[in-house]
Amino acid sequence: MEKTLIKLENVSLKYPLSSNKNKSFLSLIKSALLGKKESDGVIDSKNILSNISLDITKGDRVAILGHNGAGKTTLLRVMAGIYEPSEGEFIKVGQVSSLISISLGIHEDVSGIDNIYLRARLMGRSKEAVKSKIKDIIEFSELGHHIEQPVRTYSSGMKMRLAFSIATAFKIDILLMDEWLSVGDKEFKIKAQNKLTELVYESNIVVLASHSESLVRKVCNKAMILEHGQVKNFGPIKEISDIYFKG
User: Among 85, 94, 191, 206, which has the highest number of CB atoms less than 10 A from its own CB?
Assistant: First the structure.
């Protein structure tokens, strides 16, 4: 029996639209005088994800398909542990690497080398694991002596090379991607593409949100269609991509 590495059971995520904290003291007094009961905290919310149940196991490469605003990135962030479900249960087994916001955790006022430690620790890597990868990360980023300088002195391309090099430096069990990353100049892009391809084939699980039919058919073996935060279809890549792209 295959071991489930990602499991979502009746997962919903609600986004607060209004709260009593935003109400004026006068409006709260008025509600009390009129006999209207005001609850504490959130009083109105919107479902971003609704009642999602999924089992994703070792060997699965899953495409998340859906129009803009369907909830694809939000679902990835739940899987990454960035968002906690409002309802339901989320279980993951294995080390997750999220390439959703690779610059998250990069600090402008410290050096590139300090950022390697800070970002990698945020990813859950031990100090020893980071030390063992420092040389590889610096070499892959092609930053040279700039690695000792504050990140605020970097160009946008240099920052992205640093962030990408950190995010892809470690062994990954579960790889989460929001579209296929394209980073740096022409030569670095080729190197980055090769690195991503290597990660996809080495990871136990890949979940990729994308609008590209050719990409998901090439990379994935399963797919889901997300509409208004709900999974409408989930199954083999050919069947689901035919429904989404040709239906």
Answer: 206
Give the pairing of strands 96-99 and 4-19: unpaired
Q: Which of 122, 121, 120, 94 is closest to 204 using CA atoms?
A: 94
Beta bridge partners of 46: 15
**Contact call for residues 237 and 223 (beta carbons, < 8 A):** yes
Residues 75 and 103 in one domain: no
- Its domain, for residue 140, covers 99-203
Per-position pLDDT tens, the chain of length 247: 457 699 999 999 998 766 555 555 566 555 555 655 555 555 567 889 999 999 999 999 999 999 999 999 999 999 998 899 999 999 999 888 888 888 877 899 999 999 999 988 888 888 999 999 999 999 999 999 999 999 999 999 999 999 999 999 998 899 999 988 878 788 898 999 999 999 999 999 999 999 999 999 999 999 999 999 999 999 999 999 999 998 7
CATH code assigned at 116: 3.40.50.300
Helices (H), the chain: 25-33, 72-80, 112-122, 127-141, 156-167, 186-202, 213-219, 237-246
Helix 127-141 and helix 112-122, axial crossing angle in degrees, nearest 10: 130
Q: What pTM value is reported for the model? A: 0.82
Per the CB < 8 A criterion, the answer to whether 204 and 175 are in contact is no
Regarding whether 103 and 181 lie in a shared domain, the answer is yes
